[in-house]
Amino acid sequence: MSALVEVIADELLEAEKTRNPVAPLTQRFSELTVTDAYQIQLEVMKKKQTAGRQIIGKKVGLTSVAMQKMLGVDEPDYGHLLDDMQVSDGDKVKISDMVSPKIEAEIGFILGQDLVGPNVNYLDVLMATKYVVPTLEIIDSRIADWKIKLIDTVADNGSSAKVVVGNQLSSIDGVDLRSLGMALYNNGELVATGSGAAALGHPAEAVAWLANKLFEFGITLKAGELILPGALSGAVTVKQGDRITAQFGTLGSVSVTFE
């Protein structure tokens, strides 16, 4: 299996580089397990780090019941965030750099302390959180036509592409992240709404799940890392000319333009 892991990792790297997506892995490799898919993801990360990239955080996906039902799973998944994926608030992103992008709004957590599984709970996460920050995750699939199952998206780094990080850093003191509202706009038109509860009932629960899941792979969430706990609404497809803004009440807003 290790040889196949490397072959698929190289295939996904090439697809990302050329923007030519690959056929679904689950259609071609029926023997792949979810554990294999995580090994593929980790192999891709190893190759990117060897090329000079740095890990700046992690992301949780499939935190909504609707998305889990769609893919026939009963738990979230995760991916890695790298330094070349970060976009500043208000910047522009080229559509041509991606295959078929969509966008989601999330409450980003910036850790002040390490979080080490396997027994992390959401209170541990709140204690370890230095700031929360408004973020937009641009997701993309190197799998053709988004025809993904859990194994496909896990191998493909949780279908992650870029993260837009807002400028306002907020303490969580006095903020109820569960009920915090989010409004997502495309060129000034409201296209989605949500609240913190969309991410496993509380976004800190999603971060706790991640810390405990990563323990299985010998990975720790580190102080200073940015953690995305999952989308607060369904993903919105974007096209050239779109300006996307997410507003998070007292936590501020974040925006990006596609060109």
Question: How would you describe the overall organization of this protein?
Answer:
With 259 residues, the protein is of the alpha+beta class. It has one domain (2-258): Fumarylacetoacetate hydrolase, domain 2. It is built from seven helices and 13 strands. The protein has helices spanning 2-18, 25-28, 34-50, 65-71, 122-128, 150-155, 203-215, and strands spanning 55-61, 77-82, 86-88, 92-93, 102-111, 129-139, 160-165, 181-186, 189-195, 226-228, 236-237, 243-247, 253-258. The longest helix is centred in the N-terminal third of the chain and has 17 residues, at 2-18. The radius of gyration is 17 Å and the shape is globular. The N and C termini lie far apart (40 Å).
The CATH architecture category equals Alpha-Beta Complex
CATH topology label = Fumarylacetoacetate hydrolase, domain 2
| Total E-strand runs | 13
Number of domains: 1
The CATH class: Alpha Beta
What is the straight-line distance between the termini? 40 Å
Order of helices and strands: HHHEHEEEEHEHEEEHEEEE
